[in-house]
Specification:
Layout: H1 10-18, E1 44-45, E2 50-56, E3 59-61, E4 65-67, E5 69-77, E6 86-90, H2 96-103, E7 113-115, E8 127-134, E9 137-142, E10 159-165, E11 179-184, E12 187-189, E13 197-205, E14 211-218, H3 224-233, E15 240-249, E16 254-261, E17 264-269, E18 287-292
Parallel strand pairs: 2-5, 4-10, 11-13
Antiparallel strand pairs: 1-2, 2-3, 5-8, 6-7, 6-9, 8-16, 9-10, 11-12, 13-16, 14-15, 14-17, 17-18
Helix pairs in contact: 1-3
């Protein structure tokens, strides 16, 4: 398979960092407010260049085609588990059948599978907007999350083919961001100060490896270690909620996501398995806690 680690998967990632055993986890967070969200029944609007994806246990309701260029994916998590959209481009003349066969094999992905990002996992009931610049070609929408039973959701059928057609007259414009976060092996470099309110984050992968950004909001007085402790025992309300972000994207890629932040403590996490030892990148220190005032 392409990779077992689930982007946006709070439990496995935090547990590895803190040395705890993995347990089932659920979140009771409310939806993330997104201004200008499209109507729920539209799948792709070529005028606004917004593609709507609904995720549930275990399927996507997503468009079959979009056009190349800057496109905003509005992900709505309708399921009781975490879900995300990880776009994988199928290159070198390979087909969806080749992709499905490769996903059944262990080890690293073949070079013709290119992880192209997408909206990372919001908590159940939440939503997230992410914008990316798509090249024409054949893609698969994949969910790598493995909550609650350790089985990645794509193995339960949570994939959806997507054809990106050549650009038309409305190719889309690159979003304007007010915050920039750089990803590297193995760090996040966010702005020195992040204030409350709605922000558009520009996420740039400057590392040689694939990286992602999953943003979580910590409950008052809680830390990433508290999240791991709750997972080990699951006693009381969860100490964090998942807001989303950007799923795995290759070196040199730039993508955007929008989040509405309230005052409190947050963390950025990367769960992508390392190319050398297959440990999640946060086990190598790719976690960043920060405060929003």
């Amino acid at each position: 398979m392409l990779r077992r680690s689930a982007a946006g998967l709070l439990c496995s990632a935090v547990v590895v960092v803190c040395g705890c055993s993995k347990q089932d986890a659920k979140s009771d967070s409310s939806a993330v407010a997104q201004a200008g969200a499209p109507t729920p029944n539209a799948k792709f609007d070529p005028t606004t260049r917004v593609a709507v994806v609904h995720a549930k246990d275990f399927a996507f309701d997503a468009p079959d085609t979009v056009t190349a260029g800057w496109t905003t994916f509005h992900l709505v998590n309708d399921g009781p588990s975490l879900h995300h959209v990880s776009l994988v481009r199928i290159d070198s003349g390979k087909t969806v059948a080749d992709f499905e066969a490769a996903m059944k094999k262990p080890g690293p992905p073949p070079a013709w599978m290119v992880e192209a990002g997408g909206p990372n996992a919001p908590s159940p009931g939440g939503s997230i907007d992410a914008s990316l610049n798509l090249a024409p070609g054949t893609y698969m929408i994949v969910c790598f999350v493995d909550i609650p039973d350790g089985v990645p959701h794509f193995m339960k059928g949570m994939t959806h083919p997507l054809t990106v057609l050549p650009a038309t007259a409305t190719a889309g414009a690159e979003p304007t961001a007010d915050m920039t976060v750089e990803l590297a092996d193995y760090s996040f470099v966010p702005p020195t100060t992040i204030t409350s309110g709605k922000h558009t984050f520009k996420v740039v992968n400057k590392g040689p490896q694939v990286h992602e950004l999953e943003l979580i909001r910590l409950a008052p007085g809680k830390t990433v270690k508290d999240v791991a402790a709750w997972i080990a025992k699951a006693d009381g309300p969860p100490p964090a909620e998942a807001l989303g972000g950007i799923s795995g994207m290759h070196s040199g890629m730039t993508e955007y996501f929008t989040a509405d932040l309230t005052p409190g403590n947050y963390a950025m996490l990367c769960f992508i398995p390392d190319a050398k030892d297959n440990k999640p990148h946060l086990a190598h220190g790719m976690v960043k806690e920060f405060a929003v005032k």
